[in-house]
Write a structure and sequence with these properties.
Layout: E1 3-7, E2 10-12, E3 18-25, E4 32-39, E5 46-52, E6 57-59, E7 67-72, E8 77-82, E9 91-100, E10 103-107, E11 111-115
Parallel strand pairs: 2-11
Antiparallel strand pairs: 1-3, 3-8, 4-5, 4-9, 5-6, 7-8, 9-10, 9-11
């Protein structure tokens, strides 16, 4: 059984920063990709960033240059450092783990990020 817990969301002014954490518990997983998704009310879910266990990284164009995804494999933790936040970044941010063997798809509960003056 794998469990994901997000933390670090909150209210921040435009131009501010937040660091989100996704803590993964359960048995050791050797091959997987961790995704950060976000979804605002009434809008489509979108992928923000992803990182594999071998540190292959991808970003959505809307956050390129502002967000940084990283991981600590010893702690089974993935981070999303968000800088220069904009009002359009406001959303619930979800951590998603896709495991390739044994196969699996796991989601956290989400953490709210609100960017407002």
């Amino acid at each position: 059984q794998v469990r994901l817990v997000e933390s670090g969301g909150g209210l921040v002014q435009p131009g501010g920063s937040l660091n989100l954490t996704c803590t993964q518990s359960g048995s050791l997983i050797r091959s997987s990709t961790t995704f950060w998704y976000r979804q605002a009310p009434g809008k489509q879910r979108e992928m923000v960033a992803s990182i594999t266990t071998s540190s292959i990284i991808d970003y959505a164009g809307a956050v390129q240059g502002r967000f940084t995804v990283s991981r600590n494999n010893d702690k089974n933790t993935v981070y999303l450092q968000m800088n220069d936040l904009k009002p359009e970044d406001t959303a619930v941010y979800f951590c998603n783990l896709k495991v390739y063997w044994p196969s699996g798809d796991y989601w956290g509960q989400g953490t709210q990020v609100t960017v407002s003056s």
